[in-house]
Amino acid sequence: MDRFQILRVSIICLISLSSFGTKLSSQDSPILAENLGANEAFVDGDHIFYKVFESFSNQNLNGDGDMKDLVLHYRNIQTGEVVNTRIAGDFLYQQILSNRWLILIAQEADQSEDLNGDSDMADRVLQVHDLQTQTTTNSNLAVSTVLHNREGTQLLLRISEEHQFEDLDGNREIENGKQTLHIYSLETGEIKNFGIDALFFLETETEYLFSIFESEKNEDYNQDGDRADPIFHFLDKETLELRNTQFSYAVTGAFRWTPKVLEQGEWLYFLIPERTQGVDFNSDGDQGDLGVRAYNVHSKEILEVAASSFNTTKFNNHIVAYVEKESIQQRDLNEDGDTHDQVTHIQNLLTGEIKNLKVAGFPAAFHNDFVIIRVSEGAQNEDLDEDGSIFGEVYFRYNLATDELTNLHLFGGPSDNVIVTEDSCLFLNQNEFSLKRDLNGDGDEADRSIIRVA
Length: 454
Known about the structure:
Blueprint: E1 5-8, E2 13-16, E3 32-35, E4 40-44, E5 47-53, H1 54-57, E6 70-76, E7 82-88, E8 93-97, E9 101-107, H2 108-111, E10 124-130, E11 135-150, E12 154-160, H3 161-164, E13 179-185, E14 191-193, E15 199-203, E16 207-213, E17 230-236, E18 242-248, E19 261-264, E20 267-273, H4 274-277, E21 290-296, E22 302-305, E23 314-316, E24 319-325, H5 326-329, E25 342-348, E26 354-367, E27 370-376, H6 377-380, E28 393-399, E29 404-411, E30 418-420, E31 425-431, H7 432-435, E32 448-453
Antiparallel strand pairs: 1-4, 2-3, 4-5, 5-6, 6-7, 8-9, 9-10, 10-11, 11-12, 12-13, 13-14, 15-16, 16-17, 17-18, 19-20, 20-21, 21-22, 23-24, 24-25, 25-26, 26-27, 27-28, 28-29, 30-31, 31-32
């Protein structure tokens, strides 16, 4: 309903003004108001949709033999034509697609009809009304959830075996709580049942991304020796073929609240726990860490990413800024004489090049061809802002085009202290005392300011 303008008044009227936008004089035509007999409406495109009380109109508008219902009508704003959809009740879902299809999930009890043919009137059934032909198609599907809609062509649905009263996954049982993925074509009315339950994540130009639990079909999709993981699958929009990525993610344990997948330009980045994948990505002798894989939505190519976290990593299409832990690498990556730091690296997925910037810190933001890095003086073992101590953090900027690393001499803070605009970076909460500079020219060094860097 977020696309619609919702109108709620005691009675909805259509008002016609003879001289809209001008002051009406006594010689102007009178204002005409048409009472639609409804108390709720939404507007989309050229149509206003509203429900009419049967008792108000004294008619049986949906053909169920009584006059107790609210029945959906719509009016073409341009032509004034009114259409009765003959669908009654409070809809659990309503959406307009391509200014043509009105998608409704109707309750059988409101309609007084067994819409999906399972011999009861307790279900919620998908109805599709074509605004061009002014006809309604009953899908006969007891829909639990509309997972997603592809504008103008497809609906992605979860259908309940219990409410459909049908074995939908082919195991010869009708299971309570069992739901399966279906795709409904708005253009043809064709329905495809995939026989599995799936969780929708996102849509690319050519594919949908779902996760499917291995237990659905008792298969080891990622070949880790068990059948207990959720695995990402792509579904081709045209062929409707499922393709297994073998990527898992965590639904329990320490990583269950972390993001699973990020979109960045033409790339998708997947965060994969070693435990659910059954591998040791970083060769540190355990399976308690994370790995990252990249997927190009055009070439369908899958590439390994050197990063091991989303929290300490920034993505800019095919460029990845991430940190390497010296303790895992067992090397002094920033040449400060120890192996206790986390050091920023840059990976170019297209060339395969990995660049060690040799600064102990975390990527804070991308800005065009620049990476902003928050560097720790203590970890770097260097007084970077020349204030006589090594207890702070300082922002650096790395130029991807020229391979130059520049100390901005700005006070470092959380990554949300950096705001990237189209033509500049704003560094918030710059502490004059820490920087030992009067940033706002008021004669002291006691304030906090915002610094803009082009």
